[in-house]
Design brief:
The protein is an alpha/beta fold. It contains 12 helices and 16 strands. The chain is 33% helix and 20% strand. The strands form 3 sheets. An 8-stranded mixed beta sheet has the order 3-4-5-2-6-7-1-8, sandwiched between helices. The chain has a 5-stranded mixed beta sheet with strand order 12-11-10-13-14.
Length: 396
Amino acid sequence: MTLKLPPLHPAQAAIYAHPARFKVIACGRRFGKTELGKQLLLHHATNGGVTWWISPTYGMAGQVWRDLRQVLAPLKPTVTTVERRIDLEGGGVVAVRSGMTPDFLRGAGLDYAVLDEAAFLPADLWPEVVRPMLIDRRGGAAFLSSPNGRNHFYHLYALGLDPQQPEWAAFHHPSHDNPRLDRAELEALRATLPDIVYRAEILAEFVDSAGQVFRDVDLRATAPADAVPHADQRVVIGVDWGKSVDYTVCAVIDANRGVMLALDRFNGLSWAETRRRIADLARRWNAQVVWAEANAAGDVNIEALIADGVPVCAFQTTARSKPVLIDKLALALEHGELALLPDPVLLSELNAFRVDPMPLGGYRYSAPAGLHDDTVIALALAWHGARTSTVGIGFA
């Protein structure tokens, strides 16, 4: 019986047909790597092979498991849901596994393994666990992933490029190589993602995993250090709270001209003294709005400032909202939309700020261990406020 499978697009089909025993596929998001991997797996399983699909977590493999069950259902296989294993009549096996604990994967021989999101799997999973399982059957493997810096996946990709490694082949395909994707949508992503994220996630480039978020920061430090309040300014202030170890930082921006006006950085004050200092700064600059982080001590201080007549908006920093906040600032600096003050602490923190891929997908935005990011967050909040409608907010 022939399985009903979606047709592969040309780039997928070329990889599928390639005779290499080990295929390393570095590709952008939505290229179609998952469908390609499933069809490679099914080809071997329906010909009697024992096959494994390995993802960083079971949760990430959930849809693949459901798809494999559905497509193999006409063959009336034996399905063991608890083990996520499908046994076919001709001896073929399809099993879905998590790579989170490599030692639990040791077992019998394999004919084929698909390592999904291989750049985010443990580095020792392939050489110490999966590769030995392919020895007795001379099995093969496909490594599917978007790049995660120049880590172990990059080294596997390099093997595929080496003409002295005839069993290996490397394939590089940006998202654009999927003809079913809307080109306008991909260009829209270029305009909304920081350069480092776009290059890794869409262009499938092996960029430094500990990459700088903010580029050419020193070139953007063109704002005059002696700015004074003017009636034609639309002033927005961003506030990041700190007390003892961290600093409270207030970043002041003229939203009309895209120019940084002032930066106030301090610690060691009581919350009451901190609020007075922020209120004085807001009144001095006649701020239209103050955007302050609402987390931790922020909520109480924001309420107190509002009660004192300061026009404050609260920003909830979450794992979802922080990347958006930082990405907007990074794009503004890349496009020259915001002139920075030549403040050495600000420039140092911007230059040090990093984006790091996380094992389960997504990115972590933070300062390196032991360093601060208070000026970065305050500036990002101010820029967010500069690009957010604040009609009706301001001092009476």
